Amino acid sequence: MPPPGNEYAAEQLKTSGNKSFKDGDYDAAEALYSQAIQKHSANPLLFTNRANARLKLEKWEGVIDDCIRSIELLKDNMKAFFLLAQAQIAINHPNEALSSALMAYELCTTSAQQTSNAATISALVVRCKKAKWDIRERERLRRRGDLLAELETMLETQCKKDVDEIDSHIESGSTSRTDGQEEKADRKIDFEKKRDDLRTAFEISDPAHQQKREVPDYLVDGITFEIMHDPVVTKNGRSYERATLIEHLKRSPTDPLTRETLTVGELRPNIALKDACEEFMGQNKGWVYDW
User: Which UniProt keywords apply (predicted)?
Assistant: First the structure.
């Protein structure tokens, strides 16, 4: 434990840091929080405060270091996980960011730590999940493009080989130029047909014609972060997957994101959204189950 005087000094520095942060002077806030940490390094809140200032300054590695230190001091540290996820997504580490964001969401929705930040954290989870999916999509399209290009190159190489052989026969006199020209035209027509058939096969196997595959935010459940199948709408207009919301209400009779009082009897089917979900699932069979 730090001497009482140091703990008091740290609190005073923290208060000054909070004022600088509120005023938008994030450099000063970071410096004041750093001084406070020197006085009382066992206080996990000082590290999250500095992490928040560093987040504004886009000092991503510093944010990550502070959050990890804060979590070491306080395991169930919702704010640290929330800030950590934002820094991790900023440096393009979506897998780690998603894990951190999900932990923050879990902590903020437990009965002990229910907060008004649930909607914000939920949006961050979806953002991280989309970033993780985007990386998989880019890799898929890259591989897809490489495979198609490789197969087309093989067809082109074979066509060129056939044409060169025909030219050789023409030069040697074993094939007339007229016959040779007709043969070369036939080879090129055959190549173009095979190439077009190949491209069609790739397009059929991918309904989006190799375009980026995305899930609209409004189809995603705010509790499980999966595509909804049987959405219900609450009295405040928010929609959730019926089964997961009912399970939540068994534990806490409140809206998961707004914290308003909510009961099962107040839920209504969201027919339009259900139709949209079914249409989307029907048009994108296969890959959506990996989202």
Answer: Isomerase, Repeat, Rotamase, Transferase, Ubl conjugation pathway
